[in-house]
Amino acid sequence: MGLFQTNPNSYFRIFVLLTWLWGLAVYNYQAENPVISIFPYLIPVILIAWGHGVKWGFVVAALATLSAMCADYAEIYTQTELIYSGIATYAKLTGAAIGFSLAKIIHKNINPM
Questions:
Q1: Predicted TM-score of the model (pTM)
Q2: Which of 10, 60, 64, 70 could form a disulfide with 48 if both were Cys (CB 3.0 to 4.6 A apart)?
Q3: Read out DSSP for 40-105?
Q4: The pLDDT value given to residue 1
Q5: Separation of alpha carbons 35 and 27, rounded Å
């Protein structure tokens, strides 16, 4: 089995990826300069979407969006700016989930086993 295929050990991978998001959320909450790059949040979304499909990719994208929002942003920006930022982040992450889910489908069709 490949690295990203669903198997009984996939629950451990899900746990590791959710722990990654939790760690980012804790860091963002405590740090003066939070992580604003999208790439650390993309890692769990991509891996879950590849291994478990687009629906789980959407769920992890929502969790990643929540972990990207930190307490400092609430103090600096208005509520409207926070909502727009959250929607933009979720749109980027769901786009990646859709793209990698489609890539897996294409990969399976090209390389049937």
A1: 0.82
A2: 60
A3: HHHHHHHHHHHHH-HHHHHHHHHHHHHHH--HHHHHHS-HHHHHHHHHHHHHHHHHHHHHHHHHHH
A4: 42
A5: 8
- Is residue 17 within 8 Å of 43, Cβ to Cβ? yes
In whole angstroms, give the CA distance from residue 63 to residue 102. 21
Spatial distance between the Cα atoms of 46 and 51, rounded to a whole number of angstroms: 9
* CA proximity to 44, closest of 36, 52, 33: 52
Q: Each residue of 8-63: pLDDT tens digit?
A: 677 788 888 889 999 998 988 888 888 888 999 999 999 999 888 899 999 999 99
In the chain, what is the straight-line distance between the N-terminal and C-terminal CA atoms, in Å?
11
Tokens matching residue 44: 């769990």
Handedness of CA 98, 21, 42, 62 (dihedral sign): positive
